[in-house]
Amino acid sequence: MTHELDHGRTNAAHGSRIDAYVDRYAARAAGMVASEIRALFAVASRPEVVSLGSGMPYITALPLDVVGDLVADLVATRGSVALQYGGGQGDPALREQICEVMRLEGIEAGADDIMVTVGSQQALDLITRIFIDPGDVVLAEGPSYAGALGTFAAYQAKVVHIAMDDQGLIPEALAQTIYALQAAGNRIKFLYTIPTFQNPAGVTLNEVRRRQVLEICRRAGVLVVEDNPYGLLGFDGEPMRALRADDPDGVVYLGSFSKTLAPGFRVGWAVAPHAIRDKLVLAMESAVLSHSTFTQLAVGQYLTTQPWREQIKTFRELYRERRDAMLSALEVFMPPGCTWTRPAGGFFVWMTLPEGLNSKALLPRAIAERVAFVPGTGFYSDGGGTRNMRLSFCYPEPDRIKEGVRRLAGVIEQELRMRDTFGTGSIPRQGGVDTPGPDLA
Ligand code: PMP
């Protein structure tokens, strides 16, 4: 018998996959579904599978013993502060240090312009929370970061993708889309862009276009949200100048220590005009009360006591070697008709398959051949990306990358033979929205 306080729950629902609450979720929860890709990736984490899917930084390259010592020292010497609640805007000393990091990209900001967040993912969530009503438009590159698209979906935003080429976002496409949307009465709340070493496309917005994009958005009254976790991971030359450096009032900038130090600290930040920053702080406090003082002070200690610029150089050299391994393997193994981007930094190559092939359909076969990638559809909100895949070179060692690309090329060749015989490659399975979990970030 069902107890009246049991709200209709049945014991069968406990621990089972039957959802007794299905008719009670808020409408915004409808978009929160895991796809079958997650299940496939549970298999893909087996050691014999080369994962070209994961966006995990190679933190083994950090001096982990040194980090361990500084964490122990932090608790021993400043434990009563480090293990206490902190202020909503984040540790003031860390915010000063963040200003120094951002100066490498031409940003002149003060500690008061910054709010520390739980990774830049939380900043994305909070920005969306304070700006988006259901149906509001967010502009985003096509393709764009799956984690951001998941957040936008959770707040019921309507994402409109803007085309990119190998120089990044196409300004004419941006201007036309804004014009058409505004003319049709849509409320465009912001442009979400990853201008440098984009996830997933690996491309970078060139200097001229940076100015054009800022100008177009300024004229149209569209706020720019610049997400820049990879900006310091360029393989040649000096870091690009951030968009925020040239338009402090029109850009909210998101930064992160996840790729230049370690994602496990979960320390990122947002730089915003003060009115927006005030709202963000209130939204942050309602979400988590106060972020971890402990990890903020640990990152601060690391920046104070360790040669962090040299560590970033180590990461850049390591990732450059892996990028080179991937590009040369693609050149050697991929069949004609496949094309791919050539990233100058960051973690990702974006591949386009020949006509008639579908990357999602290919994934189970690829995993059977012990290689994994992320299908392109995970990076679009509108079903695009069927012929694309994201290949990451950040985590596996160069020889494994080469082997992974060789295996993948074999699978693609097989698909091409099927297409030429039957007129199509494998048919994709149906599933939910492709929202890669954290291991695929
Ligand atoms: N933005 C982009 C473009 C990313 O690639 C990621 C993670 N891969 C994030 C934001 C979130 O990173 P974090 O929360 O670890 O700072």
Helix and strand topology:
Layout: H1 36-44, E1 50-51, H2 64-82, H3 92-103, E2 114-118, H4 119-131, E3 137-142, H5 146-154, E4 158-165, E5 168-169, H6 171-183, E6 188-193, H7 207-220, E7 223-227, H8 243-246, E8 251-256, E9 267-271, H9 274-288, H10 293-305, H11 308-333, E10 339-340, E11 348-352, H12 359-368, E12 371-372, E13 374-375, E14 388-392, H13 398-422
Parallel strand pairs: 1-12, 3-4, 3-6, 6-7, 7-8
Antiparallel strand pairs: 2-9, 4-5, 8-9, 10-11, 11-14, 13-14
Helix pairs in contact: 2-10, 4-5, 4-9, 6-7, 11-13
The structure holds 4'-deoxy-4'-aminopyridoxal-5'-phosphate (PMP).
Region (Disordered): 422-441
Keywords: Aminotransferase, Pyridoxal phosphate, Transferase
Organism: Microbispora amethystogenes
Please tell me about this protein's structure.
This protein has helices at about 35-45, 65-80, 90-105, 120-130, 145-155, 170-185, 205-220, 245, 275-290, 295-305, 310-335, 360-370, 400-420; strands at about 50, 115-120, 135-140, 160-165, 170, 190-195, 225, 250-255, 265-270, 340, 350, 370, 375, 390. The protein is an alpha/beta fold. It has an eight-stranded mixed sheet with strand order 2-9-8-7-6-3-4-5, sandwiched between helices. A four-stranded antiparallel sheet has the order 10-11-14-13. The chain has a two-stranded parallel sheet with strand order 1-12. About 45% of the residues are buried. The structure holds 4'-deoxy-4'-aminopyridoxal-5'-phosphate. 4'-deoxy-4'-aminopyridoxal-5'-phosphate (PMP) binds near residues 147, 227 and 258. Keywords: Aminotransferase, Pyridoxal phosphate, Transferase. Its cofactor is pyridoxal 5'-phosphate. This is GntR family transcriptional regulator.
